[in-house]
Every structure is written in C-alpha cells, then in structure tokens.
Amino acid sequence: MDVEVRLRKQGTFCEVDLRQFNIPNSAVGRQSLHMGCRVAWAFFLSNLKSVAEGGRDLRETDRTRTGQLHLVNM
Hints:
Elements: E1 2-10, E2 13-21, H1 27-54, H2 63-66
Antiparallel strand pairs: 1-2
C-alpha cells in the first residue's frame, strides 16, 4: 500500500488530504486492510488534531500523566 498526504493552507486553517492506494484487491484487502486502515487513520488524525490544539494525546490513559481528560472538538 501507498499513502499520499497533502497539506494546504485554507485561510487560517490547514487542510489535510490523505489518500491511501494500491490496497490489494482481495477479500482480505477489502475487508481487513481497507476497513482497518480507515479506522486507524480516523483515530490518528483525531489524535493529531487533539495534540495540535491542546496537547492532549488521546492514546494516553494514565490520568497521572494527562490530568483530567477533555473532549476534542472534531
């Protein structure tokens, strides 16, 4: 598989265009890789937004390291 990421300035915002391609055209490729990667990219990009906006890493579950957990504006 290949991944292409493009960043574009849109006013005061940054638009992220992510494209993943050359996924094997098989039952495993369509089900496991396509759906698994879709979920993983959604979480990764949400986590990136969280870190960029407020420094909260959504992967961290130890409250002694993160303080109170906050919801992220998505």
